[in-house]
Amino acid sequence: MANIELILINISGQDRPGVTSALTDILARYEAQILDIGQADIHHSLSLGILFKTDAERSGDILKDLLFKCYELNVKVRFSPVSIHDYENWVSRQGKNRWIITILGRQLTARHIALVTDEIARQELNIDGIQRLTGRMPLNSDEEPRSKSCVEFSVRGNPVDVNAMRSQFLKISQSEDFDISLQEDNVFRRCRRLICFDMDSTLIETEVIDELADRAGVGDEVRAITESAMRGEIDFCESFKRRVALLKGLDESVMRDIAEHLPITEGVERMMQVLKRTGYKTAILSGGFTYFGNYLKQRFGFDYVYANELEVENGKLTGRYVGDIVDGKRKAELLKIIAQVENINIMQTIAVGDGANDLPMLSTAGLGIAFHAKPKVKQTARQSISTIGLDGVLYFLGFKDSFITDAPADE
Questions:
Q1: Strand 281-289's sheet: what is its strand order?
Q2: Could you tell me the residue ranges of all domains in the chain?
Q3: Are strands 179-184 and 98-105 parallel, antiparallel or unpaired?
């Protein structure tokens, strides 16, 4: 190894086509071996690094040719020798775990990034890469009130205390009004295939049973039962039966009117277009009602709908339901069944929901995301979105706005 030299070159300047090609062509002519390469482009400003190995007798000619070429291209170059010991230490670190930290919100500030990177440093992790997943940032927050900002960090190492890291991220996100996701960067993260959604207060910005109850003139009674269930005084199944019974006599036509005026959650259409285009299987697993789930299925193209069936006789609701109640336990079972039918590993599944009855499926799925949920649900689910629309799920999967915008629509 005495005649071998390891050299790191760093190139910076205005980006233009052909820079990387011209420099690697020189290395190729001298039969140099590239050991590592990385490039970033921020607002047309290039930062390129290449670590290469060469014979000592060739290194002078290589550096001379690279220096002349960089002058010709009007970019700056810096050469740094790397010892074999340092290189071997770097190689040994490659076996450590890699984590993906995603931060998103309406706007991200320097303070947000500083808080996250401070915790990364405290956990003795090394940042390998940073990329922005969202498009153009508005200069004025009033310019685009529903703007989105997302940055993804790739970090390597073993956290000192991963649970403490998650807790700190949750604390930061709640106090600073932005979302933080921590995921281990394993093979399953890169090949998710099934995503299951709760419906009420997730895909739509309402609780359908409340809408029905208001039309039936029993809104206050239904909400009182719901609150009792939330306090743990009665379970979901018992509360469901009581609330459905109060809908007896409501005309079936009311359901159609409510369905046609459902307030769709921000980002649903955009998210579904991307998920369908990229081959994801999608499902609605809801403690609500199949009538409204099927309406969303037809409108957005979901593959599966499982919810509760209201019994109708002579055009009127009977106050009863048909079949088994879809509660939290049943949602988790359905997620497993769909994964088996589609031959999908459970670690390749995603579940998204807002309520306590979604926790079983959120914990069963490979990736559980609490959407605009209460703190207890957010803490249990580990991953959460509370500041932007449902298309924020796409960023947790690593999608960039450039791909989302540029990908061709279905014929």
A1: 316-322, 304-313, 281-289, 194-197, 349-353, 367-371, 383-385
A2: 4-92, 96-185, 194-406
A3: antiparallel
May I ask the CATH class of domain 96-185?
A: alpha beta
Active site residue 200: yes
Say which CATH topology domain 4-92 has.
Answer: Alpha-Beta Plaits (3.30.70)
Give the mean pLDDT of 77-93. Answer: 85
Distance CA 102, CA 150 (A): 7
Reported as a pLDDT band with limits 50, 70 and 90, residue 379 is confident
- Separation of CA 223 from chain center: 33
What's residue 407's pLDDT? Answer: 47
In this prediction the pTM is: 0.84
E strand or H helix at 287, and its extent?
Answer: strand 281-289
Of 61, 86, 177, 198, catalytic: 198
Q: What would the mean pLDDT of 270-298 be, rounded to a whole number?
A: 96
| Active site annotation includes 327 | no
Q: What are phi and psi of 335, to 5 degrees?
A: -60, -45
- 3-state secondary structure (DSSP) of residue 304: strand
Angle, to 10 degrees, between the axis of helix 19-29 and the axis of helix 56-73?
A: 160
C-alpha to C-alpha distance for 145 and 73, rounded to whole angstroms: 42
CATH superfamily of 194-406: HAD superfamily/HAD-like (3.40.50.1000)
The pLDDT value recorded for residue 348 is 97
In this prediction, residue 244 carries a pLDDT of: 96
140 has a pLDDT exceeding 50: yes
Among 15, 179, 200, 327, the active-site one is 200
Please give the mean pLDDT across all residues of the chain: 91
* Cβ contact 106:387 at 8 Å: yes
pLDDT at 409: 45
- Mention every residue, 6+ apart, whose C-beta is less than 8 A from residue 374: none
Q: What's residue 96's pLDDT?
A: 67
The dihedrals phi and psi of 278, each to the nearest 5 degrees, come to -100, 10
State the pLDDT at residue 139.
66
Tell whether the model's pLDDT for residue 2 goes beyond 60. Answer: no
pLDDT of residue 29: 94
Task: Tell me the HSE value of 11 on the side-chain side, using a 13 A CA sphere.
Answer: 30
Domains 96-185 and 194-406 equal at CATH topology level:
no
Cα–Cα distance measured from residue 225 to residue 231, given in angstroms and rounded to the nearest whole number: 10
